[in-house]
Amino acid sequence: MYEETLRADTMARGPGSTVARVVDGTLEGHALTGMAGVANIGSDRTWSGSHFDQANWFVFGRLTNPQLDAEAIAREWTKMTFSTDPAVVEPVVAMMMGSREAVVDYMTPLGLHHLMGRGHHYGPAPWDAGSERADWDPVYYHRADRAGIGFDRGSHGSNAVAQYAPPVAAQFDDVAQVPERFLLWFHHVPWDHTLQSGRPLWVELVAHYDRGVDYVAGMRRTWDGLTGKIDPERHAQVAAFP
User: Which of 9, 5, 6, 12 is nearest to 165 (CA)?
Assistant: First the structure.
């Protein structure tokens, strides 16, 4: 996720105006620059309460050099954390590199966001409304109704696209050009809107949810296959972590 963000092209000074170049100062000619983040660090031995969560903190620090590669950093972390044995490093790094998209698939596919219904954080739940505060309902964030789903942040909606450089704004503003991973963040579209796969939106959403869950099931199998290659205490902790 960090790498994707850093490599995103803002187009603020034409092509190549990446977030990384904003951060390192080369885009605007700043000698002193920085990158700040918020992390849930506590008193746990793992810093963050879970072994793999600690990798997110590690990669954030390493990417203060925004030219580094996320997979290479994951490999560093795995070797320092679990083992230098390739039979451990390769499957663990593969899990890590796919885990972000798995979460997107089973929680926030196609640009859905902030899904926090009563008792769960999954699914658009267009019926879940009427809380004492509107922003406690998922529909506040994705505007799901009988007609469709998605928040119109285009020029005919909230016009949030206006904060981007014109070439980027024009892409996000056009339902035919916006990358599908951002579709429902920028547009309210019918439930039967056809996606690039040829499937209608609702069917595509279900496919993403299923793919994310299947990936997690595969991760569990991979981790089970590392029994005996990682110390029993930490292996059991990771396997049991919700």
Answer: 12
Quick check: 153 and 141 in contact, CB under 8 A? no
| pTM, 2 dp | 0.88
Contacts of 102 by beta carbon, 8 Å cutoff, 6+ apart? 211, 212, 215, 216, 219
pLDDT tens, residue order, the chain (242 aa): 999 999 999 999 999 999 999 999 999 999 999 888 888 788 988 888 889 999 998 999 999 888 899 999 999 999 999 999 999 999 999 999 999 999 999 889 999 988 776 667 666 777 777 778 888 888 888 898 889 999 999 999 999 999 999 999 999 999 999 999 999 999 999 999 999 999 999 999 999 999 999 999 999 999 999 999 999 999 999 999 86
Positive or negative torsion for Cα 11, 17, 20, 21: negative
Domains of the chain: 83-151+188-242 (3.90.1330.10)
Single out the residue of 111, 91, 93, 101 nearest to residue 4, CA to CA: 101
What does the alpha-carbon distance between residue 8 and residue 60 come to, in Å, rounded to a whole number? 16
Q: How far apart are CA 15 and CA 153, in angstroms?
A: 24
Spatial contact of 43 and 58, defined as CB atoms under 8 Å apart? no
**CB distance 151 to 141 below 8 Å:** yes
Asked if residues 88 and 78 have their Cβ atoms less than 8 Å apart, the reply is yes
Burial 22-45 (b: 16+ CB within 10 A, else e): bbbeebeeeeeeebeeeeeeeeee
Q: In whole angstroms, what is the distance from residue 175 CA to residue 149 CA?
A: 13
